[in-house]
Each structure stands twice: as C-alpha cells, then as structure tokens.
Design a protein that fits this description.
alpha/beta; Rossmann fold; Protein-Tyrosine Phosphatase, Chain A; ten-stranded mixed beta sheet; 21 strands; about 25% strand
Length: about 450
C-alpha cells in the first residue's frame, strides 16, 4: 500500500482524485486551509468517511514514509506541507499530473473539453454509462445530484472497469496532457485565454484523439475543428444535417423536452443549452456502442450537478436558484434559460478574480443586460478574492458602471449581509432569486440562508 498526501484536498479538482485513490487501496491523507479556518466541515467529514486522514496544513501530514505529495495548482510553494516534503526529498507532484496518470491507465478514456458545460456533460456521460452497467470511473469537478447518498463527496463515480471519463481543463493548459480514445469539444468561448490560443489548444487536443471526436456544430469557434484520421461526429440545435440534431425544444415546468430522430425525450434540466449538452453526450456514448435512444432515455432520470441552475427551494412563491455561471458564455446561457419562464429575476452575481474581470468583465455585464428585462435586478458584491498578490485595478463598482451603460438595472452592494437585507426587502411573490458565481463554496450556504429568511 502506498502512502500519499493531498495538499488542498477540499478543492473540486483534488477531492475526487483523493477519494478514488483511497478506493483503489492507497493510504490517503490530506490537508486544506479551509478546514483549518473552520470552513467546509461537511466536506471534511465526507472525506473521512472513506478513511482519508485529515491533518492541519502545518506540515504534520508529511512524514518520512510518505511516497508522494500531490498539491493543488492553487497551492503555493510556501505552504508548510510543500516545504516539509521538499525538506524530506519526498516527490511533490501536481493534481493534473495524477489525473493524467490515472486517465492513461484506462483503455477507453474519454476527455470532455470546452470552455462551458464540461462539468454537466462529464456527469451525463458518466451517468449513462454507469446506469447501463458499463462500469465507468468518472472524475468530475461538480457534485453529482444522483449520487448524493454514496459515501464521500459525490463528485466521482468509481467502478472497476476499462472506461474513464474526465473533465479536460483548458484554463491552465492541462488539456495538453491527454490523448483520449474519445474527445468532446463542447464549445469554445473566451475564458482565461484568448480565442486564438484556445482554438490552437483545442485543435491540438482533437489531433490527439485516437478513435472518435465529437464537435459542436453550432459553435463558430469549434465547428471547423476536425481530425480526419478518426470518426468525427457533430451535434446541433440548428443544422438538421448534423449527426445528432434536436428540434421542437419546449420548456417544461421543471425541465425541457426535445425531439431526436422522431422520438420525444425530456430532461429534468432547463435550457436549450442542456439539450445541446445531452446531444453531445449521446454522441459520445454512441462511439462506445450505446444506442442513441437508449442513451436519451437514460438521461431522463439525470438530476444534474450542484450549482448548475439548481433550485434550492421555493417559499412564499419565491424561488431560490444556485448557479455556477461566471464567464460570458455561461452567463448568457443561464440567463437565456431563466428567461424561458415567468417571473422577475433578482440576480446576485459575485465576480471572481481581478484578472478575469479585467479581461472579460464587460462582456459578462453585456450578457446580463442582453437577457434581463427592465424590471429585473442585478446585484454585484465585491470581487471574490482568495488571497495572494494580484493587480486590483478593477472593482465591482466598475462592472456595475458597465452594466448600467448597457441599460441593466444594476446595483453595487459590497457586503453580502447588506445584499441579503436588500433582497428580502425587494423580493415579492413570483420572483426568482438567483445566486451566481464560482470558486466560493459559501455561495450555496447563502442560498439556503436566503430561503430560510424569506
């Protein structure tokens, strides 16, 4: 049995790997500064349920008998665990290195790429293959709502089979580590890198696919990508000539219906973009020999992933919704989906990262303004800051100024406590309160606090 340690073990990218390694028989330990600060205690407990030992992030987890320390890419070299490992000459590797090593162990490995929708489509592929007894191993960033009763944090599916499904992240360039049996490019939009960089990155990814490639025919930035040496499949909501085409898309009270090759199917998720996600996933599964209708039927019981337009609850005819949208394409897709239903929107959007907001904050505000009605309300707190040294030359006040220039009914309210007061004073029957943003686990808690206070 190998002894391994994870620094930043509560992170969405690290925790599924730690849990899978524990289930593979490794002795796993870990630390996280959020635990030390009294946060994410439920996450801590769920990791311990799988026998993972949690230590303070003070170097005490690092002992001479440790084989390797895996560190989140968000962890600095000055962290005591990293310093202690280096002092003992224990190898320090990154999370993406371990993910690539695991991925390469499987004969039929599937990498889900794209600047938006990776989490949901990865979960969908894994759910279909698991329900159809294909025994996949699935490594995801989001929490899988169909698997909340399993031990541990539900951001993975573990089976002893020959299929592995992962999110292939382009934001830090680690997508370059994968040469998958099947690849999916869900879309390409501006997020973390320029479009020119992303197009090159994803074409190279396509070139490395060994058996099949699935492409979004409706995305102008991805539709021309091809790997002529393998099977290429395209999905579309616009082009009837695509290999997988959905039509007659109809909003339902708690989801959406669509037609595929003359048969009607439903999703428990709202929005046209989720129909596109479903097509992408059905195409991927078809490359493994799964019948398209069987895949579509299986998806009808898929509940989604946490924080993807997740309805937290309804009280006094006011709905509280939690959403992960944080870049222009995601904000556009979420607000478009919300617009398919009646009711005023009160949206709190928490921006994260000063550099990303400098790069495309104005486009995010434009996406909101394009889809919001005059009586809808957009609220921005201060930009979420996790620490470190960054150029803080942009603020939420600047973003609200941009939003107002695009004719959005926007407000800058720095503190969350004041936002809660404002929402509670403003919300009325029929409204939908939407909490949007990424990288901050407390946003979900804020949703529950709002629902309780209504």
């Amino acid at each position: 049995m190998k002894k391994i340690c994870f620094c930043g073990i509560s992170g969405s990218g690290v925790s599924p790997l730690a849990q899978i390694m524990a289930l593979k028989g490794y002795e796993v330990r870990g630390s996280d500064r959020s635990f030390d600060n009294g946060k994410d205690q439920e996450q801590k407990q769920k990791l311990q349920e799988l026998g993972i030992k949690i230590f303070p992030q003070d170097g005490s987890a690092i002992t001479p008998d440790l084989d390797v320390l895996y560190a989140s890419t968000a962890v600095e070299d000055t962290i005591p665990d990293v310093k202690a490992a280096k002092a003992l000459n224990i190898p320090v590797k990154t999370r993406p290195e371990l993910l690539a090593e695991l991925f390469d162990e499987y004969e039929f490995n599937i990498a889900i790429g794209g600047t938006s929708g990776k989490t949901t489509t990865t979960a969908m592929v894994g759910y279909i293959l698991d329900k159809l007894d294909k025994k996949p191993c699935v490594i995801n960033g989001g929490l899988l709502l169909n698997y909340t009763k399993q031990k541990g944090i539900p951001n993975f599916i573990f089976n002893q089979g020959d299929i592995c499904v992962i999110e292939a992240d382009e934001s830090n360039g680690t997508i370059e580590k994968y040469a998958p049996y099947i690849g999916l490019i869900n879309n390409i939009g501006e997020d973390h890198k320029s479009l020119d960089e992303l197009k090159i990155l994803f074409q190279n990814f396509a070139d490395r696919c060994k058996f099949g490639l699935v492409i979004n025919d409706d995305c102008e930035n991805s539709k021309n990508i091809i790997n002529p040496k393998i099977q290429n499949l395209r999905f579309s909501l616009k082009n009837p000539q695509a290999d997988f085409y959905a039509y007659d898309i109809t909003p339902l009270p708690h989801g959406v219906s669509y037609m595929l090759d003359g048969k009607k199917f439903q999703l428990k998720l709202i929005g046209n973009f989720n129909v596109a996600n479903a097509l992408a996933v059905i195409a991927v599964c078809s490359l493994l020999g799964v019948d398209r209708f069987e895949a579509a039927k299986t998806l009808e019981s898929f509940l989604g992933t946490k924080r993807r337009l997740e309805v937290i609850g309804v009280k006094n005819n006011i709905t509280v919704i939690d959403d992960f949208a944080h870049n222009p394409d995601k904000v556009d897709a979420s607000t478009k989906a919300l617009r398919d239903y009646d009711g005023r929107l009160i949206i709190m959007f928490q921006p994260h990262g000063f550099a990303p907001m400098k790069q495309f904050g104005k486009q995010i505000m434009q996406a909101f303004a394009k889809n919001l009605n005059p009586d809808d309300i957009l609220i921005l707190p201060d930009i979420f800051f996790a620490g470190g040294t960054v150029n803080q030359s942009i603020s939420s006040a600047d973003l609200v100024h941009d939003a107002k220039n695009f004719d959005a009914n926007a407000f800058y309210i720095p503190k969350r406590s004041d936002i809660q007061k404002f929402i509670l004073q403003t919300a009325k029957k029929g409204d939908r309160i939407v909490i949007m943003g990424a990288r901050d686990n407390s946003l979900s808690l804020f949703c529950h606090d709002l629902l309780e206070a209504l």
